[in-house]
Amino acid sequence: MTERGTDDPTREEQTVTHPGVELISAFLADAHLLDGPIDEQRAAMEAASAGSPAPEGITVEATVLGGRPAEWLVPHGTGRQLVVLYLHGGGYCSGSVNTHRGLAGRIALAAGGAVAALDYRLAPEHPFPAAIDDVVAAYRHLLGLGVAPERIALAGDSAGGGLAIAALLALQAGGTALPAAVVCLSPWVDLTQSAPSYQRVGERDPMVSKGALDALASPLFAPDLSGLPPLRIEVGELEVLADDATRLAEAARAAGVETTLTEWPGMIHVFQAFPGEVLPESDESVAAIGRFLSSHLGTAAPAPTEQGVPS
Fold it and tell me: Containing H/E element for 288?
């Protein structure tokens, strides 16, 4: 992997053939996640993730945050004083707490704190800015429960990563105290689809294609990102959103935001969602995310587990 902090904006291009990626690509091709009408895509995503329940050591409890269904994923022996508000991916039109329960639970174990996964409203039934409004309401609900902002982090993958940045900007504009940190996995932050990576690896990304995305809001182009909390971005080399991640990192650094960008050679979109038995890099990335969240939420790094968190 290539990990860069706030003072190294350079980029390395590598091409890696990974047997785990080839296996996952074949699985995704059969899953038809990007085929057909929205309801069929949603059903395919739910079916494809049915084999990814919360990991052992996690208690799952349904709840409501900000008027929306949500789910607590709490490691055994911990409470809810430290919270990661997790926002699932799915192009703003699919995905749910069900599709991302496994990943959210692994992040909870890695961070040593609770994850609150949010079922925000989806397009096209609920167009922009419904999802942002839901995240803002859920975050303020957590504050109302007595969780201090310095004990909350935002995290999300793909559209959820872009949503995390957009929600931060909305909270900042509304004068609400911001959380302690934010993690973006393969964030979709430029919905204009103008980055070179759409052409560079468009045929190699089995998870996302340009034709499957549409233009709504692009937090990458916010006039001012200054004042945002420390940001960690994780992205695979072989995905159309690679440049969204690198450009977000550059814009955040330019605004003075403490930013770390980690690029994983040979990896695909949100590779962290796949099991470590197939992609060891998945567990490595989740472990690094856990250490980042632990350092900013004031928790101790947990000991290694059978899930490979941390490594």
Answer: helix 280-297
Is 88 among the residues known to form the active site? no
Residue 150 DSSP class: G
pLDDT at 122 over 50: yes
294 given a catalytic annotation: no
pLDDT digits (tens, 9 = 90+) for 38-97: 999 889 889 888 767 999 999 999 999 999 999 999 999 999 999 999 999 999 999 999
The domain spanning residue 93 has which CATH number?
Answer: 3.40.50.1820
pLDDT digit string (tens) for 140-187? 999 999 999 999 999 999 999 999 999 999 999 999 999 999 999 999
Let me know if residue 310 belongs to a domain: no
* Active-site residue, from 158, 186, 197, 294: 158
Catalytic pick among 269, 281, 285, 296: 269
Q: Is 75 within the bounds of a domain? A: yes
**Which residue out of 71, 234, 237, 239 is catalytically annotated?**
239
Distant-in-sequence, close-in-space partners of 290: CB < 8 Å, separation ≥ 6:
107, 109, 110, 111, 112, 301, 302, 309, 310
Quick check: 253 pLDDT over 80? yes
- Whether 239 is catalytic is yes
Is residue 278 assigned to a domain?
yes
CB 223: neighbour CB atoms within 10 A? Answer: 7
| Domains identified in the chain, total number | 1
Whether residue 232 is contained in a domain is answered as yes
Q: In terms of residue numbers, what domain contains 104?
A: 2-22+52-297
